[in-house]
Amino acid sequence: SSLEGWAFVMRLIGSTMRTGDGWRLPALAGLVGVLAVSITAGAAARPLPAAAGGAVGVSAVAQPWRDVNLSFSRAGRIEKIMVHRGDVVAKGQVLARQADQQQLLQEQMAAVAANSTVRIDAAKAQLAQDAVDLKKKQWAAARHAATDFEVEQATLKVTIDKLTVELAEVRHQRDVLGLQAAKLAVERRQIRAPFAGVIEDRYVDAGGAIAPFKKVLRLVSVGRLRIIAPVPLAIAHELHTGDVAEVIAGSVHARGTILWIGRVADAASGTVTVGIKVDGHSGIVAGEQVMVQLTHLQQAWHSGRAEGVGRPAMAWAGGHGP
């Protein structure tokens, strides 16, 4: 028993006090051994957590379905923050903006170049004119009114004009890409909502300078809640994706659905994480402590422990087994 073990430890300590330094190390080793046996025995005797009514239950925390901190990717001065805590925002909505006058001017300049085809049109007109001159030179040379050298010059000029047209088209493509880059530079000075949700926190105010990737806003989505519960292995081996779990928070009872079952167990606790989805309008608040009840599995758990029955294969998302 635990009392007998502690009595033995006390005798070892007493013998250490009497015998001197030569016996202190064996005595301490005995102390560590007895403590390990006592802890192991206590852990083995600990019963599986159970909720009211004898249902198997595990404690967890309800979390927002999505939870992100938003920031700027460039240093600069915050010109405006359009939202406050508690505001409901749509996906893609602009939430904050840095001072971006220089980027806007660069975008306008790039737009002028990208929307203009003057260089291409001029190059094509020059090509057409030189092509006509070449035909005239060739006609005159056939009648011995122009030299071969003049024909070669006219031919070379047409070739150069064709390359000039191609060069103008390449430059126009570069201008179009430059406009896209200028738009991205303006976009990087803004924070847009990556999904529809609620502003949970606002960390800074407009007017001040801010470093890259410093938190500005916190956006959460609570239309659905996710619960990551540490479930004992013997229970987890009975679960399947799509199974129903009852989620309790105080007097609120909600129906949850198992989305996934972890593939790696925690050796220290003998548990594996299980992801559960709950309707965010069920009355459970994100961040609240909840109890996840798995009522239909309790009998299989206790009968398996009593009879020493081997555990079935884990039901992973998408099928059985890894």
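Second entry:
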Amino acid sequence: MRIEVVTVPECPSGPLTEQRLAEALAGRPDVTIERRVAATAEQAAAYGMRGSPTVLIDGRDPFAVPGAETSLSCRLYRDEHGRVEGAPGARQLRAALAATDCCPDEAPAEGGQRAVHQAALRAFARTGRALDPAALEAVAAPLGVSAQAVLAALAAGARAGDGPSAAVCCGYLRFFATSENAEAFAAGQPEAPGRILGQQEALTFGEETFGPLLVTGVPRR
């Protein structure tokens, strides 16, 4: 896995981003970090920087707002409590890493489905709320499809022979009663991507992905 940290020169949020990345990457020797500095709008576009700092995981921006353009502006992030900060939180970064480990390219690409699925899931992971329908349509429109049609396929199953996308887009998300069982399964399925999450890491990932639904003591809206 490759992480790129892209900032403007002397970005004030750069050190905080580095600190939180170090926390999120503890025990992850498989990850390499590249650092880029964008001083011009052309460099920002070339590096995929949607404001400084931008964190890319395997070339993707897991925190990008649909339709956001590349720019040299300061970038703000909202944490799981709704606070605005200059860098993504360590828990948010761990969740993004775990999501990439699980199935980086499993969402179907045909018919614009991958783009719409990812926009919906990433928005929910960031805010705990569904993405506004108009924002989803803005993601789907450049691909020549409607978000409504993509979501209908997700619910009803429009991929020939496979069934509903919800059942097939992540074929290697599995749950085990013990770590020994998980390790035995992984040893017998060497073609399966991803890695085994411990209970606490899985809980953190779930809280970041599903927000208030899994956080004890947070009132439901």
